[in-house]
Amino acid sequence: MGKEHGAPGGLGMLLLALLAGEDRYGYEMIEALRRRSNRVFDLKAGTLYPLLHTLEREGWVSAYDREAGGRVRRYYHLTGAGRAALEGQKAGWRSYAAAVEGVLEGGLPDGV
Amino acid sequence: MACEVQDYLNRVGARIRWARGRTYLLRELSDHIEDQRSAFEAQGLPPEEALNRAVAEMGDPEEVGDALNALHRPGRSWAPALWALLAGGIGVLCVLAGLSPGALLPHLVSLSLGMGLMFLLRLTDLGRVSARLGRGTLPLTVALSLLGFILMEAAPISARGTHGGSGPLLLALGLFTPALFALALLRLRGIHGFWLWALSPLMYLLAAPAAVYPSITTALLLGGAMLLTASAAVCLGWFQGPKWVGLVSLWAPTAGLTGLFLSLFPHLTRWTAFFHPEADPEGFGWFFLLLRRVLWQGDAQAAAQYLQDTGWSGDPQFSLLTLSARLGRPVMLLALGALLLFGALCLWRVRRLHSAAGKLLAHGLFWPLFLQAAGSWLYNAGLSPFSMSLPFPFFSYGPWAMAADFALLGLLLALFRMDPLLRDGPIPARQPFSLRELLLPPLEEDGWEG
After folding, report:
1. Mean pLDDT (chain B, rounded)
2. Are residues A74 and B28, on separate chains, in Cβ contact within 8 Å?
3. Do B71 and A57 count as a contact with CB atoms less than 8 A apart?
4. pLDDT of residue A4
5. Rg (CA), chain A
6. pLDDT value of residue B436
């Protein structure tokens, strides 16, 4: 997905949204993203992990190891700062999407 | 592991320069390939094709490696080490210039030993040490403190009235007890802050060998370092419940005991000598009177008298005070500036650490160093009633103390270095605390049999 100049959100916001409900590990996130986006977002692992580690460095997600199904997996957890960032990005995205929609549909009358 | 997977991981790993980070990152990618392969096999693909497709799904190995390499570098913070080396260097210059009574060779040996330990321990992975110790941390902490207590008791008494033999070494090793205490705190994550009063006996036990030496100031500084480390843990949200409950519970036993001690012994000789030295000019008060003339009034005659009458010939460890008597009052001001700057530098760096566990361990390593320096400065400035058995860190020698100080700094640098890989893990699920349920436990509904 090309990144538009000035557009809010992005893959980072989608990953934060995936973690808002529950902690997940990398492969689980790719699967959930593919399923929820109706296969529009089909991330490569090579894209996912650098992005996740960037979010971790920002303090928006934290990682920990947990045993599941006989294997130790690295889970990611949305932090308080990450939740706040997600809310901010969601608000920015909705405003941006409404603006794009307004332009595509011919715009709203002035003052409304 | 199949050749394709190993080849892919090798190509990614070749682009990641940090060896310790490489292991950690490749494990995550390897797990991902395994998950993807299992999913393809579940969809009906033959094992070999499932594996090949799983590897292909990962993306270009060089690009992935470059992206991860750009993100993962060991944390760097050499400023505290440079500060310590500067202090050590000035100490050597003082000895070389004949400004102190210290012998050059022992000073250089202890400085080299300390620096070697610092560089070696900088490579330690304390996160892995903590994980390896696991639940054994708390019993190990108790066992080591008991061992320290027994060994200190067993050390012979020297002519100075303190424990000789291994006593000074054990006293210097005591500087590591706040770090050990911090490791134990890591295992207590998620307990309610109300229970922190129960940490007081552990803190007293860990500080006991220093009190037995006897060095009350060292015991106090170790106890203070542990209290400050546990307070930092409370403020970092390491425990459940309101923070004020944790802080009150943590400080109340020690505050109560201190109050009781002061009310029972309000007229200790040391107090009197410190607050009213003129009342005891031939006893303890003599030292405080002389010291205040040297430092507070800048009396050159008093400085000469100090150098003649005190440790210049007898005590091999030169101090800030002997240096002040030779060079004047700016020595103490410069030392205070260096101490405050070192403290601010370390705390600023600790604050920037990512994981709460890393911050907690860093507090356990920083506070003994800082309080040792502060205690030493206060005593040398005539602002503390108690003498100090440990020197000003990194500066004046005392082989064991200098080695221990540099080792503590090495471990602190190791935390800064490994910060990108340190993880807090999930908060363990615990029963919510309720004072009402503690005092009035609910009746078991099916507890009675007719």
Report:
1. 84
2. yes
3. yes
4. 46
5. 16
6. 62
Name the residue of chain B whose CA is nearest to A27's CA: B32
In the predicted structure, residue B284 carries a pLDDT above the cut 80:
no
Is residue A1 in a domain? no
Closest by CA to A19, choosing from A58, A42, A46, A52, is A52
User: Looking at chain A, which residue has its C-alpha nearest residue B63?
Assistant: A46
| Inter-chain touch B67–A63, beta carbons under 8 Å | no
Q: B244: Cβ–Cβ under 8 A, 6 or more apart, which residues?
A: none
Look at residue A109 and tell me if it is in a domain: no
Residue A57 at interface with chain B, using a CB cutoff of 8 Å: yes
Q: Does A66 touch chain B (CB under 8 A)?
A: yes
C-alpha–C-alpha distance, residues A13 and A41, integer Å: 13
Burial of B437 (0-12, 13-18, 19+ CB in 10 A): exposed
Assign residue A86 the CATH number of its domain: 1.10.10.10
Angle between helices A80-104 and A11-21 (to 10 degrees): 130
**Which of B28, B354, B425 minimises the CB distance to A64?**
B425
Interface-testing mutation among B5, B18, B57, B351, with chain A (most A C-beta atoms within 10 A): B57
Distance from C-alpha of B223 to C-alpha of B254, rounded to nearest angstrom: 9
Work out the minimum CA distance from B12 to partner chain A, whole angstroms: 10
C-alpha atoms less than 13 angstroms from C-alpha of B375 in its C-beta half-sphere: 23
Give dist(CA B122, CA B116) in Å, integer. Answer: 10
Q: Match 């005991």 to its residue by tokens.
A: B257
How far apart, in whole angstroms, are the C-alpha atoms of residue B78 and residue B399?
23
Q: Which domain holds residue A78?
A: 11-95
Would you give the DSSP letter of residue B441?
A: P
Residue A62 lies in a domain: yes
Q: Does A5 fall in a domain? A: no
List chain A residues with CB under 8 Å of B31.
25-27, 71, 73-74
**Domain count across chain A:** 1
Which has the closest alpha carbon to B148: B177, B179, B121, B126? B177
Record the tokens describing residue B116, joined without a space: 């070697």
Least confidently predicted of A34-38, B108-112, B308-312 = B308-312
Question: For chain A, first and last CA: distance in Å?
Answer: 33
Q: What is the pLDDT of residue A5?
A: 46
- Distance in Å, alpha carbon of B57 to nearest chain A alpha carbon: 6
B148 pLDDT more than 50: yes
Distance in Å, alpha carbon of B32 to nearest chain A alpha carbon? 6
> Nearest CB to B71: which of A54, A62, A66?
A54
A103 Cα to chain B: minimum distance (Å): 37
pLDDT for A3: 44
Q: Note the pLDDT tens digit of each residue in B376-400.
A: 898 888 888 887 888 889 887 677 8
- Please enumerate, as own/partner, the contacts of B50-55 that have beta carbons within 8 Å and a separation of 24 or more: B51/B2, B51/B4, B51/B5, B52/B4, B55/B4, B55/B5, B55/B8
Provide ipTM, 2 decimals.
0.82
Contacts A–B by Cβ distance under 8 A = 70
